[in-house]
């Protein structure tokens, strides 16, 4: 697992209070991990803070699963 | 329409001298101070270095971590005290009409630390706001009553009263009236405060309300003593279950006390200083007696607002003398803030509990830390200095006054 993927997982475990085993790439924040709309906003903000990367609102709206978050971050970090 | 009667059937306390009602009461009766040096932040550059903090509270024993982190401490305290009160009331949540159970809570300030932390964090950045989405819901004072309702499914009247240090008594009086009118069968009332923070201590230091007796925190809260120099900040919560009398009887509930009246008034004088003749306090206590329909001579004990400030303490006694006359010297008076510190918006909650336990045990908790008589204070008052006093207690009055000139007073009676 990439360093980015591990950090993303850690943030999700911490913020949503879920087990790491539940944080699979397919897991949806709202449908599978119990997040409400405010939790999702907070997660995006935590990603921005952790990776020092502003995520525009229209992009953030599309990040609905663990996999999509990792994919987005891996694509945009360090560029 | 005849008013319905309102009784108290459950109690919960989270205080600087005890994390539950039995511990709180035994320390009140024993005259224990809850004051000590501030541990929550480095207060060395503040005028006051001490407060009455809570001790050894494990929030996650009561609230799952994931929920707890979305709440300010004042909401944690509210939920913890309510948990004890609901259990104490022996409520079977499946057997009551939860649509007729309200929650009316009091908080003077709300989520002060949440506000502080977020803005400190913001100030460290470049001006781009990265405000946490839970910031507002942590901070707003009404989140306490909202969270209580969600936890138990209580769908009746729900809000928070804000009248500084009178907040909880206002909450109690509102609930009294709703239950009297038959609008609610039960109501969770109480108050919580968590203002031992940089802004809380710094702010009350700035208006010179706090004691600065840094060399002796545990003797700093000394209401009616000649050398009192301000109040000591406390934190915590108190919760009471108020219930319509017949509702309580029909479910065989333990009845601690009857809430027989509440009085309210305003000083209309100054934003922080009390009226020099204690006019607002007088009117509020008079209103409470009228509401309860009792004579002044029926009051056995007054738990005063008595915060240990130079101006406030004698003015309250002046008002008591004006209203009660010679009976002022026959009743017991004490300020339990000498032990708990001043819990601001939650003061009325923990003091109502002190009054109810005093009736149960027929014991008046003391005003501790009395060293030197004050010439300004008539020595004929029995201020219950230093040691608890046994006496027959049937009816008690609890006073709460707040910045803004708000006065709210409640009267409880021992069940017959």
UniProtKB/TrEMBL annotation, chain A:
Domain Carrier, chain residue ranges per copy: 2-77
Keyword terms, alphabetized: Cytoplasm, Fatty acid biosynthesis, Fatty acid metabolism, Lipid biosynthesis, Lipid metabolism, Phosphopantetheine, Phosphoprotein
GO molecular function ontology, one term from the record: acyl binding
UniProt-listed PROSITE patterns: CARRIER, PHOSPHOPANTETHEINE
Modified residues (O-(pantetheine 4'-phosphoryl)serine): 37
Subcellular location(s) of the protein: Cytoplasm
Record flagged with keyword Ion transport: no
Alphabetized InterPro entries for the sequence: ACP, ACP-like_sf, PP-bd_ACP, Ppantetheine_attach_site
Post-translational modification summary for this protein: 4'-phosphopantetheine is transferred from CoA to a specific serine of apo-ACP by acpS. 4'-phosphopantetheine is transferred from CoA to a specific serine of apo-ACP by AcpS. This modification is essential for activity because fatty acids are bound in thioester linkage to the sulfhydryl of the prosthetic group.
Keyword check for Transmembrane: no
Biological or metabolic pathway of the protein: Lipid metabolism; fatty acid biosynthesis
GO biological process, one term: lipid A biosynthetic process
One GO cellular component, as annotated: cytosol
Cited function: Carrier of the growing fatty acid chain in fatty acid biosynthesis.
PANTHER family in alphabetical order: ACYL CARRIER PROTEIN, CARRIER DOMAIN-CONTAINING PROTEIN
Name under which the protein is recorded: Acyl carrier protein
Gene source species: Spirosoma telluris
Gene name of the record: acpP
């Amino acid at each position: 697992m990439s360093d980015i993927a591990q950090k993303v997982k850690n943030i999700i475990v911490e913020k949503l209070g879920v087990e790491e085993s539940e944080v699979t790439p397919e897991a949806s924040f709202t449908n599978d991990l119990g997040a409400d709309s405010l939790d999702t906003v907070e997660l995006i903000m935590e990603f921005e803070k952790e990776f020092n990367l502003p995520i525009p609102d229209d992009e953030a709206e599309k990040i609905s699963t663990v996999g999509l978050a990792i994919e987005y971050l891996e694509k945009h970090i360090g560029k | 329409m005849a008013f319905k009667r309102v009784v108290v059937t459950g109690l919960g306390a989270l205080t600087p001298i005890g994390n539950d009602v039995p511990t709180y009461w035994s320390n009140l009766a024993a005259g224990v101070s809850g004051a000590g040096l501030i541990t929550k932040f480095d207060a060395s550059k503040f005028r006051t270095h001490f407060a009455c903090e809570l001790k050894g509270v494990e929030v996650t024993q009561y609230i799952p971590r994931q929920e707890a982190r979305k709440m300010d401490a004042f909401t944690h305290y509210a939920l913890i005290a309510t948990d004890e009160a609901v259990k104490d009331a022996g409520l079977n949540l499946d057997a009551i009409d939860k649509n007729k159970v309200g929650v009316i809570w009091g908080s003077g300030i709300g989520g002060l630390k949440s506000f502080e932390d977020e803005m400190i964090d913001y100030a460290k950045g470049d001006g781009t706001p990265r405000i946490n989405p839970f910031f507002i819901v942590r901070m707003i004072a009404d989140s306490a009553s909202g969270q209580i309702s969600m936890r138990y499914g209580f769908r009746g009247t729900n809000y928070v009263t804000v009248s500084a240090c009178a907040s909880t008594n206002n909450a109690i009086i509102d609930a009294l009236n709703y239950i009297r009118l038959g609008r609610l069968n039960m109501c969770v009332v109480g108050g919580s405060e968590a203002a031992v923070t940089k802004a809380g201590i710094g702010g009350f230091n700035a208006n010179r309300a706090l004691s600065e007796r840094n060399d002796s925190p545990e003797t700093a809260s000394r209401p009616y003593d000649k050398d009192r120099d301000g109040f000591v900040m406390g934190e915590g919560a108190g919760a009471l279950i108020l219930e319509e009398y017949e509702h309580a009887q029909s479910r065989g509930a333990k009845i601690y006390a009857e809430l027989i009246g509440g009085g309210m008034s305003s000083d209309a004088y100054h934003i922080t200083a009390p009226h020099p003749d204690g006019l607002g306090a007088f009117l509020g206590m008079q209103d409470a007696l009228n509401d309860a329909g009792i004579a002044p001579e029926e009051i056995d004990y007054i738990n005063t607002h008595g915060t240990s400030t130079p101006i406030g303490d004698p003015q309250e006694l002046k008002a008591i003398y004006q209203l009660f006359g010679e009976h002022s010297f026959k009743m017991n008076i004490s300020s339990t803030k000498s032990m708990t510190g001043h819990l601001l918006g939650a003061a009325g909650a923990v003091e109502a509990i002190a009054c109810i336990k005093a009736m149960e045990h027929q014991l008046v908790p003391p005003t501790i830390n009395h060293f030197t008589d004050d010439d300004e204070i008539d020595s004929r008052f029995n201020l219950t200095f230093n040691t608890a006093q046994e006496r027959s207690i049937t009816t008690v009055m609890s006073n709460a006054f707040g910045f803004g000139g708000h006065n709210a007073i409640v009267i409880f009676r021992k069940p017959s």
